[in-house]
Amino acid sequence: SQQGEEDPQALSIQEGENATMNCSYKTSINNLQWYRQNSGRGLVHLILIRSNEREKHSGRLRVTLDTSKKSSSLLITASRAADTASYFCATPEYSGGGADGLTFGKGTHLIIQP
Amino acid sequence: EPEVTQTPSHQVTQMGQEVILRCVPISNHLYFYWYRQILGQKVEFLVSFYNNEISEKSEIFDDQFSVERPDGSNFTLKIRSTKLEDSAMYFCASTPGQETQYFGPGTRLLVL
After folding, report:
1. What residue of B is the nearest CA neighbor of A108?
2. Domain segments of chain B: what residues?
3. What is the rounded CA–CA span in Å between residue A56 and residue A54?
4. A-chain residue closest to B31, CA distance
5. Region of poorest pLDDT, from A3-17, A33-47, B9-23, B96-110
6. % of chain B at pLDDT higher than 90
7. Fewer CB within 10 Å, N or C, chain B?
8. Predicted confidence band at B22 (pLDDT cuts at 50, 70, 90)?
9. Among A42, A45, A97, whose Cβ lies nearest the Cβ of B104?
10. A61, burial (CB in 10 Å: exposed 0-12, middle 13-18, buried 19+)
């Protein structure tokens, strides 16, 4: 499946700058989620946006969703060195049957230069 | 804040051996999941579990794999006869509903 493909694959910016990552998906969704993964560690849930929402904020994070283009973006404002991580979008495999597994993209590896 | 926990953090095994990976989901959660991430690749869904039975499974989750909730707190993934290609990070996740999934720190499995 090519659901949830992020770009760019890698992004390196200076501390204090904003970082924008994009995600595209192919099938209909009822929500889209963004996760962060520090090197070799577990996945941390950042934010969930539902299909009837266009924008959502959480602290320094801003997520948009365009269902007509089947795309989402994650903006991290005023980046910090601690934001260095891989960021993934994920969508439920909506089968309507219950506990949907998530389909993850390949991720964007974000490096914040001090 | 409650967390999903997983044991062991690392496991090394010989090809053909059975391994059991253990997870303790967050206590009031109802849905449980296993995922794997081969080094450098995407996180891949393996299986979901609800009401004491498998709800969904991916193509990866073949007869070599099984899951169990042996008691009220643990959720296990068993790989019956490990292959070299089973080497990966295995993540457990849980959710109270069907949206945000909370992931454990993972078990790194190395098959030699």
Report:
1. B42
2. 5-99
3. 7
4. A99
5. A3-17
6. 81
7. N
8. very high
9. A42
10. middle
Check CB contact of B104 with chain A, cutoff 8 Å: yes
Q: Which residues of A touch B44 (CB under 8 A)?
A: 104
* Model pLDDT, residue A2: 38
pLDDT tier for residue A87 given thresholds of 50, 70 and 90: very high
Please give the pLDDT value at position A60. 97
Mean of per-residue pLDDT scores for chain B: 93
Chain A hits for B24, Cβ within 8 Å? none
Using an 8 Å Cβ cutoff, are B90 and B106 in contact? Answer: yes
At position B9, the amino acid (one-letter code) is S
Cβ atoms of A89 and A23 within 8 Å: the answer is yes
**Domains of chain A, CATH where assigned:** 1-78 (2.60.40.10)
With a CB cutoff of 8 Å and minimum separation 6, the contacts of B6 are: B21, B22, B23, B24, B90, B91, B92, B104, B105, B106, B107
Among chain B residues, the shortest Cα distance to A43 is held by: B103
The proportion of chain B whose per-residue pLDDT surpasses 70, expressed as a percent, equals 99
R_g of chain A, CA atoms, integer Å: 14
